[in-house]
Give the backbone structure.
Amino acid sequence: MLAPMGLWTAAQTRAAGLSAEGTVGRGISLDLARARAAQISGVRYHLSFDLTATDTAAGRVVIRFDRVGNSRDLVLDFRGPTLADLTVNGRPLPAAGRVDGHLVLPAALLKTGANIVSARFATPIAASGAAIIRYHDDKDGQAYLYTLLVPSDANLLFPCFDQPDLKARFRWTITAPAGWTVIANGPLDGQQPATGGTRWRFAETEPISTYLAAFAAGPWTHWTSAPAGERPISLYARASRRAEVDAEAQIATNRAAVRWLSDWFEVPFPFAKLDLVLAPAFPFGGMEHVGAVFYNEDRFIFREPPTLPQRVGRDATIYHEISHQWFGDDVTMRWFDDLWLKEGFSTYMAARIQAELQPDGNAWTNFLLSTKTPAYRADATSGTQALWQPLDNLNAAKSNYGPIVYNKAPAVIKQLTFLVGEAGFRRGLHRFLIDHAYGNATWQDLLRAVGAASGVDLTAFGRQYMLRAGLPRVDTQLRIAGGRIGSLTLVQRPVRSLPGDRGGAWPMKVRVRLGYRDRTDVVLDAAFSGTSAIVAGAEGLPVPDYVWPNDDDQGYGLFLPDDRTIAWIVTHVGTVKDPLLRAMLWSAVWDTVRDVRFSPARYITMLLDNLPGETDEQISRTILSRGAAALDVYLPDDASAPLRPRWEQALLARIDNANLGYGLRKDALDRLIATARTPLALVRLRDLLAGRATLVGAAVRQPTRWAIVRRLIAVAAPDAAALYAAEQRLDQTSETVKDAFVARAATPDRAVKAAYFARYFDDAALNEAWVSESLGAFNTVEQAELTLPFLRPALDRLEWIRQNRRIFFLPAWIDAFIGGQRDAAALDVVDRFLDARPALPLDVRRKVLTARDELALTVHIRAATFPTSAEV
């Protein structure tokens, strides 16, 4: 029996991680986690599941652990619907004592040393909102199941101690219908017939965190590669999509990443096996479960020839998830306040792998455009936060995911590498991985290892980059004397004043390029001492045509060029051969647009002047995306209308240019589809659907066809409904239902929007991934006036979303509904919401502020008046 709460001392209560009122509270609090980590170790789970029922999985768990003597009561976590036959060291304990997803295991039933807890339980299987996701294949009627536990839903699946620093060895036994295949963390240990199907037994794993536990079950098709002397790698996918999967290429990319990382870290692959699962309707790009990496099926199966950015993106996801096997799975952050430690490193290492293994992919150009740029955008807002994010309870951990963790962190790591030197950085990482193998670590542990290996004091670096929110703005001060450089200085200041900011300078080392038309460029290193960095060696040199203060993109900050440099870029950017430098110069101009120094119309003109000569797929994709934003978001309709004919003509010319490769032409088509408004463009879209026009000599395929239909729906084309129905009849792939659902969300009709909005919350069978994919169509930017009435209701549901949706959904929802607006009326709605909700959770408020500041910038740019003669 449980001891009466009134008999506990305050010390006993704290030791068990309980509140002063005697309850644990919802979620897993930091106090509870610390108390448990001091109480137990050596945790092992033996989990048995029966998956033969449709909507519920029955399970049994046996938990073994060692307990410190005199450590009081112990708290067990489980939020599933049914818990029964609970025993502690063979003695029964009523499960009726479970409150808020927790059950207290009384000290009287526990032993010093080895303990065994066992129980039966049940957990739901559902299309969304459950720990076991069920996907129904509309093409062949088959069902597929997979778990989704990150960051703190393991206790929704099974009774456990659900915190990252209580690592455990897992052993799975799973009964599944006959004809199914089961994949789990450990290697397969045997199969045998069982009632209702087949029982699959898996060997015990190495110590892993609970959020990394996983299994997948269904009638998977699979491929296996087992080169002599290397571990086998198997890839699993839906049977109905077998013909579409380039399995050999995907397995080879995963294997290459394993080899490279093992060599570079000088630490062998840390786990017994590696399986890969292409999970349908998976809400993330990938998930790094030990032994069973899940990848997003849609992103990994190309239904039409992929462009370079698509191929690079898929490979980057693979490199990211395989890097996690060392950073995250082997060495895990102690608590989710250090989430950046695993995510940032995996993104950074992915870029390094790509640069080494795919030199033609321009990995560091992609890193600038796809990783660093979103970091700058988020970090410049009032909603930003530090890399290390305090977290009182794991039930809020999903809100820590976002661009600061995924984008700023790898950018900061790149600066760290340059600051301490390649050799010291690599030695430090090796030591870090060795010292904390199969354990947990913090950011302090990392900087301590790198600092010791490189001989660089990283105290200030940690204080300014790990604990401080925001980023520096770096301006160039060039003084000319006697026709030569008198002095060249870089000056930093915060981009934005943030409440509670303790100030100080960001430690930074950069390379500065002095660009010359008629002589070799000069590149000089510069290090900040306080808020300024004097570029030694520049004094007395000829005056350059331009100065770029972050050559090779080593620094982290908003580097804004002076007016002289901007003028040179506008005229000469197309002559710059190096793709990374050219991408940085293009980005510099875009930053001055967002700094309200350069008009969006001028940017579009500059873009169209240079577009014919741009042959880098990643740069082309980025500048066209920004051009579309300038046209559709930053310019009022009356200002953008005169530019549209030239914009559409330029895209059509690019699509039809036989001298360009497929990727460049396909990207131009994608941009035409996204922005088409005039009859010139809309006729081409209809011709592509009808087969009267082609792309690179071939008919367009899915998903491009559905994208065209969606656009015609969005602009209220008179034949849109007929084309929608025709596409449903024509498209016989398993993705038809989802694609049709997403396209119809673009309908410019209030009743349709209202029906979608209600279904987002009321339809329990609607897969969360479908909702996420439809948000952009729902909030088509040209329909801002129509969707404005849904903005406040969308904001009012944020706390429900925070509690009931997966990571990434909340920021996607906020960005879609606020980002789909352009005018002051919408900004007023957001501000009124924030004023009315002073108790809004801080993590939610920050995400709203990030989107709100973007909207405020849009309103400011749209209202700005730019000079007609001098744009800078």
In short: Confidence is low (pLDDT under 50) at residues 1-17. The chain is about 40% helix and 20% strand. The CA atoms of residues 222 and 464 lie 48 Å apart.
